[in-house]
Amino acid sequence: MRVNRNSYKFFISSKCLIFIWALIFFQSYTLRAQLTIVPIDNSRYESTEEGSYAATLRTNASLPLPFFDDFSTSKSSTVNTKYWLPGSGVYVNNTLTALHPSLNVATFDGLNANGAPYNVVNPLTQSFTDTLTSQPVNLAGKVAGDSVYLSFYWSAKGLGELPDSSDFFRVEFFNKSKEWVTVWNQQGYQVDTLFHQQFVAIKDPNFFHDAFQFRFRSYGRSSGPYDTWHLDYVHLNAKRSAKQPYLFDVAMRKPVSPFLKKYTAMPLRQYLVNPQAATSDSARTDIVNNFNNFNILTSTFTLIDEQKGTEFLRNVQRSIYVEALKSQVLRTKLATVKPAAQSDSLLLLSKFYVTTTDTISGVNLKTNDTITARTALSDYFAYDDGSAEYGVQVNQKLGRVAVQYVLAKADTIGGLRMSMVSFNKDISGQGFTIQIFGNKNNKPDQVIAQRSVTVRYPGTRNGFVDYAFSIPVAVPDTFYVGWLQINEQPLTVGFDRNSMLGRTSVYYNLGTEWAKETSLKGSIMIRPYLGKKAQGVITGNEPVAGSGNIFYPNPTRGEVHWNNRSLKQIDVYHVNGTLVQTILPAKDQQSVSLEHLNLGMFIFKATDGKRSFVQKMLISK
After folding, report:
1. Do 508 and 432 form a contact (C-beta atoms < 8 A)?
2. Element spanning 53, H or E
3. 196-202 and 148-156 beta bridge pairing
């Protein structure tokens, strides 16, 4: 996992000493951890930076009061440019915090507008990181007596890193002299992880002009998603009072829970085997009342086929009582869905929306009254929600990673879709091996199929790369997919810190034994997809002749025998996935000498033309 600096610098103030201690800690840490979490570089997907465009993107007609944004109108991970200058570097999301006051927050960290670290040379360098600047607002003609206030909610950490004593989050105002003036500053050493509302009065005459702007800036470690701050409910208006801080708004907040019990997506044909077992009992989200008085509202949940518009479910709950300044869980029972005949996929849209009496003069508060989630029942399995907050790596050459998947019935796998992300270095073209394993004692067992491939990056942020097998691979009801790292430079695969569905399904192998990874809190973004046909059907582990294994003795000193006269081809692989020898047995041949091979573990994969057999063999002295 990514090292949390707060765990080793609690009593240390010197950055030099911290760096030395960090190196020691990290080295000892990586000896223990087999999979590590790293920040990712998304610079290939975005290209605007605030510094380059700030002057040209300021509107000629400044925005009128009131200014209000709770980020619920953002259609992607970037801010709404109606209110903000683009290229801020902030990440709009609804998953990196808890107990936030409204749907979506803007997250500040050490990644720039391109999604890349501001500094990749020195991991402890500190500087200004993200800056979120408003479009100009017309305050001309206002005076101190108009009681103009900027208010906002802020929080530290969330799922990121808690800011340190040298880090800060601040607000600056743009005056008539075209200078930025600091008006509020929050140091990182005395913060909790709750959201706090802050009021900043505007009284200085130098700020009352027709091109007034304000901006939020974070200062901290600039080498990745560290020293994290979150922002919500930004509201600028006249005739306000800090003694009346409450917003008359009931807002949606937490993401809708998955429609499926074990996955975020699964193949439709697998779902239809046992829909009841695959479907969650209920769907959940929550709402929060940000006003100092109770609210009674109506909640509606719908589940529809987004492609055809068919409504599978509608539940209405009336007279829901929400206490002042409290949250309330919304829960509704789910039912299985049945698609139209001959359908091979189904895209479900789950939606909660509430009917409220929210009111702020001049502000539309209805945008945060609806929250949705999508579930794909198509051709693939997924534990992740489609967004990579970090990357995951195996920390040594020839290390292997495998993720467990469980089918409703045996099927075929056509290939893997992987979220390929970069960390500090573009390794396009570097080779690695994708692998599928059988299951034994709830761990990866024999290699069912593998293919040598190269690193390719998707064309869009949070995209996936498709690695297909030449022939669909028959798999048992429990199988594993993963990769073998064959270079010193580690491969980085997307890691979703928001979905915990896959946290108990990860295994690693640094030699000959598989072990379960228990430290990861999230899901690796690797998605097996189904094939259309296969050479044979597997209903359990790989078949073997008779009651034992085909190849013997095991271990062997070099002479290998087999008890199946019908074998047509035997491929011998080193445990790292390298093919070292192919044997084409002559008629009635049932042994071969492999004394020329080095000592170690090998994998024998054989076929008689109808069935395949896989067995590990140890060549010893």
Report:
1. no
2. helix 50-53
3. antiparallel
The rounded distance, in Å, linking the Cα atoms of 304 and 138 is 44
User: In the chain, what is the straight-line distance between the N-terminal and C-terminal CA atoms, in Å?
Assistant: 39
Query: CA geometry: angle at 313 spanning 310 and 315, to 5°?
Result: 140
Domains 43-245 and 390-530 share a fold: yes
Q: Please give the structure tokens belonging to residue 79.
A: 């801010």
Q: Which residues on neighbouring strands pair with residue 168, listed in sequence order?
A: 187, 219
The CATH architecture annotation of domain 390-530 reads: Sandwich (2.60)
d(CA 114, CA 45): 7
Calpha distance 557→553 (Å, rounded) = 9
Concatenated DSSP letters of 323-376: -TT-EEEEEEE-----PPTT---EEEEEEEEEE----BTTB--GGGSEEEEEEE
Neighbouring-strand partners of residue 127: 220
Say how far apart CA 506 and CA 386 lie, in whole Å.
18
Do residues 369 and 73 make contact, with C-beta atoms less than 8 angstroms apart?
no
Give residue-wise pLDDT tens across range 74-111: 777 889 999 999 878 888 989 888 889 999 999 998 76
d(CA 26, CA 5): 10
Q: What is the pLDDT of residues 327-381, one digit of tens each?
A: 999 999 999 999 988 888 999 999 999 998 777 778 888 889 999 999 999 999 9
Overall fold of domain 251-257+271-378: Immunoglobulin-like (2.60.40)
Would you list the domain boundaries of the chain?
1-32, 43-245, 251-257+271-378, 390-530, 551-619
- Please give the class, per CATH, of domain 43-245: mainly beta
The vertex-209 CA angle with 203 and 210, nearest 5°, equals 140
How far apart are the C-alpha atoms of 444 and 438, rounded to whole Å?
Answer: 6
> What sign for the dihedral angle of Cα 591, 594, 599, 603?
negative
Q: Give the separation between CA 333 and CA 338, rounded to whole angstroms.
A: 16
List own/partner pairs for 31-35 with CB under 8 A and 24 or more apart.
33/1, 33/395, 33/519, 34/394, 34/395, 34/399, 34/508, 34/510, 34/515, 34/517, 35/392, 35/393, 35/394, 35/395, 35/401, 35/506, 35/508, 35/517, 35/519, 35/520
Determine the Cα–Cα distance for residues 322 and 329; give it in Å rounded to an integer.
10
Contact 481, 474 (CB under 8 A): no
CA angle 326, 331, 335 (to 5 degrees): 170
pLDDT digits (tens, 9 = 90+) for 595-614: 888 877 788 888 887 777 88
Q: What is the DSSP letter of 20?
A: H
